[in-house]
Amino acid sequence: MARSRAVLVALIAALLGSAGAGWWLAGHEPRPIKASVTRDIDGDTVVVRTDAGQQLTIRLLGVDTPETHKPNTPVQCYGPEASAYTNARLAGRRIQLEFDVEHHDIYGRTLAYIILDGKRFNDELLRLGFARLLVIAPNGAHARTMLRAMLDARNAKRGLWGSCV
Q1: CB 55, CB 49: distance < 8 Å
Q2: Which of 124, 121, 147 is nearest to 135 (CA)?
Q3: pLDDT for 77-125, tens place per residue?
Q4: What is the DSSP string of 42-82?
């Protein structure tokens, strides 16, 4: 019992420490990069072309939408709706990319928050119930705000919270 409690305390301390580092370091990142969204892959992944001409696959930080294109995985409840929403809101739009501590995932995708019309689109997905919160340390600069957005959607049964069991 004491050992499991010690492991739990260590896990919580590590999570809080990495989230704290993310919040502190996020304030010390370079300015956002301006880009245009060229296409969506699914609800939480898009392709952009930066003003410098670089094409990047962007995995949105802090969100996880239901799967629609993952190999060997069936289309998940509310996945098509999340993908359609991302496409409708972002396709062809001018955006800014805001980074956190780690800039790339293990698949080589660029990790970023998308700023659309001055607001974080990632939060919009959570607030409307198109996504669940997914914070992977050390990227956690906006975790608290994003958690509030997801909990509001869940409590109001918006989007996937009212449609999926």
Answers
A1: yes
A2: 147
A3: 999 999 999 999 999 999 999 999 999 999 999 999 999 999 999 999 9
A4: ETTEEEEEETTS-EEEEEETEEEPPPSS-TT-PPPTTHHHH
Q: Which residues contact 8 (CB under 8 A, 6 or more apart)?
A: none
pLDDT digits (tens, 9 = 90+) for 33-44: 999 999 999 999
Among 93, 102, 109, 154, the active-site one is 109
pLDDT at 31: 83
93 is catalytic: no
Span 108-120, pLDDT tens digits: 999 999 999 999 9
Give the whole-angstrom CA distance, residue 59 versus residue 149. Answer: 19
Question: Is 102 designated active site?
Answer: no
- Sort residue 159 into left (φ over 0), alpha (ψ -120 to 50) or beta: left
**How many residues are given for the chain?**
165
Instruction: Give Cβ neighbours of residue 101 (< 8 Å, ≥ 6 apart).
Output: 21, 22, 25, 26, 138, 139, 141
67 catalytically annotated: yes
